[in-house]
Amino acid sequence: MKGVVLDDAAVLLADGDTVATAITDLEAGRTIETEDLPDDRTVLEVAEPIAFGHKLAVTAIDAGEPIAKYGEVIGSATERIEPGEWVHTHNCESNRGRGDLAEGSA
Amino acid sequence: METFSGYRRADGRIGVRNRVAVLPTSVAASAVADRIAADGGPRVTATPHQMGTEQPEPARRRTERVLAGIGRNPNVGGALVVELGTEAAGASAIADEIAAGDTPVETLSIRDAGGTRAAIDRGREAVDALLEEAARARLESADASELVFGVECGGSDATSGIAANPAVGNACDRLVEAGGTSCFSETPEFIGAEHVLAERCVDESVRERLLECVDRRESVADLMGVDLRGTQPTPGNQEGGLTTIEEKSLGAIAKGGTTPIRDVVDYADPLPVGGGLVVMDTPGYDVESVVGKVAGGAQVIAFTTGRGSTTGNPIAPVIKVTGNPQTSDRMATNMDVDASTVLDGESVEAVGERVYETLLSVADGTRTEAERRGMAEFAINELQPRELASLGDPT
Asked: Most buried among A29, A51, B108, B331, using CB within 10 Å?
């Protein structure tokens, strides 16, 4: 597959991605040990249970910052996300198809 | 050279199946069409649908275009068009378009026949005659370059963008390399990934049309003052790990492969043979989207699904590809290609080769799991009031 598998736990699909995708169910407290993490990090501790196919942050992401997967922006953080935390609809929102934000909308 | 045995049609195109299609022109003729096809055996398939007897002019034209396109699909060796007799979309107009492609075609009016019982009897007689005509079709060796391959995704999860879609995309690349046509669609699932696609368009005109299609889909959300997040990604997609439409789109576009986008065509418009990679502007609803491509002439469909969609099509064989190991295991009797091996380290290229080999084998007559299980879903994408309004004066 394209990308790099991180310690049989998750796949980082492109350089510069701020999230990786779990390729197995990850338990809280699991450590992912690899040289392939960003920020010169070699260990990432999974902060909470993350299901197969779901995403975890591989770096700290501030509120409002873009979130990257596939080397592209997939949305923005709605709160600060720490490395190892689950990234999903509770802390990442789309920037597109937002008729609710369109000018003149209620 | 990569070849398969197919049915040569009068217009030169090649069918991979030799079916008799029973096409109702409205919901009012759909049950009768179903009954007529029910006793005809596996080669006779009906396309029941929900379109009403009266539709606004552009919507009616679209229904006619879809049904005529289905009748002209090279997998069809004969067509029976069934009407109640009160439809704005009449059987004769659709039959004329099908006949223009030299496909044997008959029409049946339920009212003229004297009610449903007589219509079913007459319909079965017509189907028998069409089966005889279809049986005369010559089976001959055809080249991969004659294939029009439609690709679709439905019930996506995080594995779709990582495993199944890239593998199907690789098969698209192989077919385009062999001189054939690959077609991907589902415009709402370009939102957030259109900049990647725009760079791959062969010229400015194709690029502009592609971006227009995406703008139109996104502006529907703006017009209505709603947030696409309510429906995209779907709750099922979200459970599967997809968070935003951008993320879903970036995974979805992988199924078209990596070759230049040569054209953008409207829903159910004819797809070129030997045309390279072509985009069709279809809705995200997978059954309607598949029907659009089959109406455009696609003989075979590949359909990726992480969560386990089981749908097929009455006219074109549908190859199911999953990247999810659990779905591959639990729904093995509905899946044709296991792409979840990508997660274990098998290369996308190797899985793509398996998809491509399956495509040629299915074109040669091997039945897909959907065909074996009689999965033959059919639905027409109806133009909605807001879309009609955006088209302006229909004349």
From this structure: B108
